[in-house]
């Protein structure tokens, strides 16, 4: 499927700054805390420390690196697909297989794309972030933020995902 990209929104310029205390965005001299940094502060990552202690630092680092690599690869496939670019070029077969599970859903429901990798900010909340896509989903403006996991998640375990999309 080829998406209509004629209505893409203009890009908002925000500089991304990664610091020891979290990610920030900067616009016109004003700093904004990233949405993901604010969420990690609110929801905490104690579960991550517990998991590292249980499996060991070496194994935890290997799994984290694999997850990050997989997530980045899939994200790249999604992004290129939504931009009508060759999403298969350079992609690993397994990642294309995983994307193939989601592609029919995207094709069925996305009716137009307003932007991909949009940086958004709020002066009221003092927050900023980058959403994966802003689309018309069944003709309703909708934020998409792709998540990857090897394991199914329970709704109560992903509250932060809903909060993140709401903030955007």
Q: Tell me, rounded to a whole number, the average pLDDT.
A: 89
- Categorize the overall geometry: globular
Low-confidence stretches: none
Q: Classify the oligomer.
A: single chain
The run of helices and strands is EEEHHHHEEEH
Distance between the termini: 27 Å
Structural class: alpha+beta
Q: Summarize the main sheet.
A: 6 strands, mixed
How many strand elements?
A: 6
Number of helical segments? 5
Which helices and strands, and how do they pair?
Elements: E1 15-19, E2 22-27, E3 30-34, H1 35-43, H2 46-55, H3 57-82, H4 93-109, E4 110-122, E5 127-137, E6 140-144, H5 159-167
Parallel strand pairs: 3-5
Antiparallel strand pairs: 1-2, 2-3, 4-5, 5-6
Describe this protein's structure.
- The protein is α+β, with helices and mostly antiparallel strands and 168 residues long.
- Helix content is 42%, strand content 27%.
- It has five helices and six strands; from the N terminus they run βββααααβββα.
- It has helices at 35-43, 46-55, 57-82, 93-109, 159-167; strands spanning 15-19, 22-27, 30-34, 110-122, 127-137, 140-144.
- Strands 1, 2, 3, 4, 5 and 6 form a six-stranded mixed sheet that branches.
- Strand 5 and strand 6 form a beta hairpin.
- The radius of gyration is 17 Å and the shape is globular.
- The two termini are 27 Å apart.
Supply database-style keywords:
single chain, 168 residues, alpha+beta, six-stranded mixed beta sheet
Offer a quick outline of the entry.
The chain contains 5 helices and 6 strands; from the N terminus they run βββααααβββα. It is 42% helix and 27% strand.
